[in-house]
Amino acid sequence: MPWQLQEAKQKFSQLVRQALEQGPQIVTRHGEEVVVVISAEAYRRLSGSKPDFKTFLLSGPDFSELDLVRSHETARAVEL
Fold first, then answer.
1. What pairs with residue 25 in β-bridges?
2. Most buried by CB count within 10 Å: which residue of 18, 45, 75, 77?
3. Domain 3-60 belongs to what architecture?
4. Distance (Å, rounded) from C-alpha 12 to C-alpha 28?
5. CA gap 44, 3 in Å, rounded
6. In whole angstroms, what is the distance from residue 11 CA to residue 41 CA?
7. What pLDDT is recorded for position 66?
8. How is residue 78 annotated by DSSP?
9. Residue 59, SS3?
10. What is the per-residue burial (b if ≥16 Cβ within 10 Å, else e) of 19-45?
């Protein structure tokens, strides 16, 4: 059951306790879902530690072990 914002403000301790014991708690404003309160553990699990772009690229496979040889033949003629 979602929490209305006013009720969530008044019973914040209860909201936090339920998020820890029962899982994510949805808070609504004017009948629209606006936020979800989750435990810090759940947040860390969902957000994870993501490497920066450079680390991501460097963690890829080692292409130096592949036998990549480019042909020295001339390109084929293509009619445009």
1. 37
2. 18
3. 3-Layer(aba) Sandwich (3.40)
4. 14
5. 23
6. 22
7. 85
8. -
9. coil
10. beeeeebebeeeeeeeeebbeeeeeee
Q: Which two tokens stand for residue 43?
A: 């947040």
Could you tell me the residue ranges of all domains in the chain?
3-60
Cα 52 → chain centroid: 14
For residue 3, give both structure tokens. 């929490």
Tokens at residue 67, please?
């036998």
**Which two tokens mark 10?**
């008044």
Residue that has been written with the tokens 């309160």 in this structure: 37
Cα separation, 24 vs 1, whole angstroms: 11
Strand order in the sheet with 32-37: 3-4, 25-29, 32-37
Q: Which helix (H) or strand (E) holds 54?
A: helix 53-58
